């Protein structure tokens, strides 16, 4: 009886063992299903490169601000793209040349010097072939003076010399010398006095002397090149003007040669003084807007122009 009971117990199935085997089958099925889904996802997912060059190119540089953008996809997953932000400088964040790093000053000074030197040469060239009266003459010394205000003495002399060299290539050495004397020297002189915040009276007085010297130098150089004394023609014109003035005043005296030469010199000085005054007005209105202001004009000029700068 005991043996038959043991055989029946051994041959019979244990109900506690059946639920233990069923979860094993379900876990195997779930593992196989997950592996199949993983294979499907791997087939849908494009292959990704794990080379060192891709990792280096995709990694953002340190110190550069980046922005992450999430792009939608048809497969149901998203892609994140990291892009560097472009640095923008607003006009309120303008950095003057004095606050720049010394290593960044040199190329900027060279570029601005070359640009303003070519601008001065171009103004002289246009005025020579297409004369517009005193319109362009007012701007002859302004670019070189602006170079002095921004980059100092050495850069302004370089701008004046480069302008002369450029004009010597385009128009010949004679025209380049006539530009350098007096307008190149005048630009350096005006820039130096404006940089030191000198008064208008001082800058106009020194500029008038340079302009007068340039006028006589021009006559002397052209007289040598032409082989004639051009000063004689000037004396002839001044003599006619002096005789007309004496006749209007009721004077019967004949103007002498020293008097005529003195009148000619006075006219030349007045002409250059008026020219320098107009140059100061142009620079006052233009350079203030460029961030390099010149000294303030006298009170009567501010009242005349209604200028509150």
Total count of strands: 2
Order of H and E elements: HHHEEHHHHHHHHH
What profile does the largest beta sheet have?
A: 2 strands, antiparallel
Overall pLDDT, averaged?
A: 77
List the total number of helices: 12
- The class by helix and strand makeup works out as mainly alpha
Strand percent estimate: under 5%
Strand order of the largest sheet: 1-2
In helices, the fraction of residues equals 55-70%
Reported CATH architecture of one domain: Orthogonal Bundle
Q: Kindly provide the name of the CATH class of one domain.
A: Mainly Alpha
Shape: globular
The third-level CATH topology of one domain is: Arp2/3 complex 21 kDa subunit ARPC3
Q: Cα distance, first to last residue?
A: 126 Å
* Uncertain residue segments: 1-65, 85-89
Tell me the Rg in angstroms: 43 Å
Characterization of the model:
Helix content is 69%, strand content 4%. It is mainly alpha-helical and 309 residues long. It has a domain at 105-305: Arp2/3 complex 21 kDa subunit ARPC3, CATH 1.10.1760. The chain has a two-stranded antiparallel sheet with strand order 1-2. A hairpin with a 7-residue loop joins strand 1 (66-71) and strand 2. Mean pLDDT is 77; it is low at 1-65 and 85-89.
């Amino acid at each position: 009886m005991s043996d038959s009971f043991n055989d029946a117990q051994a041959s019979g199935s244990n109900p506690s063992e059946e639920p233990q085997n069923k979860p094993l089958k379900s876990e195997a099925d779930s593992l196989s299903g997950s592996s199949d889904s993983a294979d499907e996802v791997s087939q849908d997912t494009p292959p990704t490169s794990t080379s060192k060059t891709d990792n280096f190119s995709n990694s953002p540089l340190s110190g550069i601000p980046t922005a992450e953008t999430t792009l939608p996809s048809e497969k149901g997953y998203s892609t994140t793209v990291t892009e560097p932000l472009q640095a923008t400088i607003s006009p309120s964040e303008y950095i003057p040349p004095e606050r720049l790093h010394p290593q960044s000053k040199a190329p900027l000074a060279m570029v601005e010097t070359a640009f303003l030197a070519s601008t001065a040469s171009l103004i002289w060239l246009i005025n020579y072939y297409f004369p517009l009266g005193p319109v362009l003459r007012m701007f002859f010394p302004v670019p070189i003076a602006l170079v002095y205000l921004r980059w100092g003495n050495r850069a302004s002399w370089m701008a004046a010399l480069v302008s002369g060299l450029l004009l010597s290539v385009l128009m010949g050495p004679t025209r380049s010398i006539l530009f350098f004397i007096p307008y190149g020297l005048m630009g350096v002189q005006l820039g130096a006095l404006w940089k030191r915040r000198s008064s208008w009276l001082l800058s106009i007085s020194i500029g008038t002397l340079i302009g007068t010297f340039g006028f006589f130098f021009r006559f002397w150089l052209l007289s040598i090149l032409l082989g004639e004394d051009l000063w004689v023609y000037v004396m002839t014109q001044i003599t006619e003007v002096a005789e007309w003035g004496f006749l209007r005043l009721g004077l019967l005296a004949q103007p002498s040669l020293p008097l005529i030469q003195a009148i000619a010199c006075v006219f030349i000085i007045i002409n250059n003084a008026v020219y320098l005054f107009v140059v100061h007005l142009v620079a006052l209105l233009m350079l203030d807007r460029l961030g390099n202001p010149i000294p303030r004009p006298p009170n009567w000029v501010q009242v005349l122009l209604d200028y509150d700068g």
